[in-house]
Here is the input.
Amino acid sequence: MRCRKCGEKAAINMRHHRLALCKEHYLDWFIAQTERFIQKYKMFTHQERILVAVSGGKDSLALWDVLHRLEYQADGLYLGLGIDEGVNYSDESRQMCEIFAAERSLTLHTIDIQENYGNSIPGIVEKLHRVQKKPCSVCGLAKRHELNRIAHEQGYDALVTGHNLDDEVAVLFANTLNWSAEHLVRQEPVLPGTSGFTRKAKPFCRFYERETAAYALLRNIEYIYEECPYSSGSTTLAYKEMWNQLENQKPGTKLNYYLSFIHAKEKGLFAWTQAEKLQGLNVCPGCGQPTTSAGLCTFCRTVQQAAAV
Ligand code: Q46
Ligand code: ZN
Ligand code: ZN
Here is the structure.
């Protein structure tokens, strides 16, 4: 297989785009595409301050690398969840982020859940549920809360994450299985900020996972190869495998599924109703973040309950 641009040996063949490229032209293409998506969906500008949520994995570090190369003002935020499970997952992933930031002289904020709230994520779950339970729902809650808190407190204009097309397709599929309008409304390449909530953007939402992996590999980015130990056996992984089979049979299926959804939204489907737009939010007396609850937000309540055990 030869590069379409220069005829050299191709480093990657993207069947869905009918495009094979060598290392040099692939890296150029990947960066140009990211810039195109940022502009197309009006995610953020060069004048704004961006906070990248980094986990030490390939997607988030590749994203930070691309934004840095495109000369965006992008700082990183690493959230220490306290996940060990015998493989030192959190410690190793934090180190990857620290090395990455140090090598490029970039600013990395590090927040440790245990230091801030008295318990790690698995610790909170253990205290609240006597039966062995996966910590993913509490983990997701903590990530949303803390990312928004830091972005807001530090005055960032946008919070960006490294979600790729495979992630977006798995979530979209889960949401269409039960037609969860409330979630479909919120699934966007860019979610505008509202009072108390920082704008959220996903510049990699149109890249296949193997494309972000190829970028990280070809750029020699050191990242943590292991997935979080709690991710094995998850429904999301099962959906991803299923979608890989569909994609193998018909290249482009994932991209088509996601883009058709985005186009439908642009035409007004799965949009906020006027009533939802006007729905007021309360302010959490614990953390000051907006919440639908009348008292403490779910995160503050969870942390408080675990501390009381
Ligand atoms: S939610 Fe669950 Fe992930 Fe948190 S506990 Fe690990 S697998 S990191 S995306
Ligand atoms: Zn080439
Ligand atoms: Zn709160």
